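Annotators were shown the component list below and the corresponding predicted structure, then asked to write short factual statements about the assembly.
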Amino acid sequence: MIVLVGSEKGGVGKSMVAAHAAVRLSMTGKATFLADADPQQTSLRWAMARKAHRPDSPAVESASFVGDLRSEITRLAKDYGHIVIDCGGSDSAALRSGMLLAHRMIIPSRVARRDIETLQHVSQLVAQANAERTKKGMTEIISRVVFNGIKALPSFWTRIEAAKKAVEGMGLGVSKFSIVDRVSYDDSQYQGGTVFDAKEDQKAIDEMERVLKSLLRKEQPE
Amino acid sequence: MVKPNYEIESTDSFIAGAEERANRNAVKPDNLVQIGNRVPKELRRQLKQAALENDTTINAILIDALEAWLADNNTKRLRGSALDDDGL
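Structure shown to annotators:
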């Protein structure tokens, strides 16, 4: 499976989600590659640290990429069972070419007005990518917005519901599971880890498992 | 009459405890190969086995063990193709 993690907005947790998706897919036993198409190279550094400090953990190979990803990713797809692409927070050739390749697209977003506003453009890109894919006889990319960094407060749920309605109104699907703002997500990234490796915060493990399973399962219900 | 020191030492459990501890920490065959914790468990096991069997850690044995581990590791991972839509 090829999974694209991208959006137009920075600081929404793309690299964190990409790292967790890569490790969870690697746990299936298939060779997994994390393609870092973000100039900040957060994912590449994370994967290098993982290789150095966690040689017994599920392996995630990584390299950085710029521009059109199609030829490189197609070549890698022969050697890896799963590829996760981490795109930077901007509309780029990497993001658009990834949309033409990937089976799934995860779009992390904060529940904040200025973050949600950027999803309008992402929605247009997804629609354009799907039109291109249809022309080539490909299936449409299944894309979902995942709310990240939400507060575990009852009053926050009304904000999530309102944000969900706004995003769905733009034509984008929203994951029914969100990611709570937990320090364990940040702490676990130390030395290339994830909450699946640290095994310390069971709530975070269960939460991330629910999110990823709903987005990356083999067959989507709709 | 004052008791001689050697008699106190020979019956003192504190002293005996030190001996027990020293025995527990005596060099065992496992300690023949000192490898850092960052080396994968399976590779550590194979290197120890190679060192025990050959009673040495010369380069050729280390290289053989490394190559065996790499070959084994490569075949263990399922390759598949990322072009297949098969996630979790």
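Statements collected:
1. The mean pLDDT of chain A is 93.
2. The longest strand of chain A covers residues 142-150.
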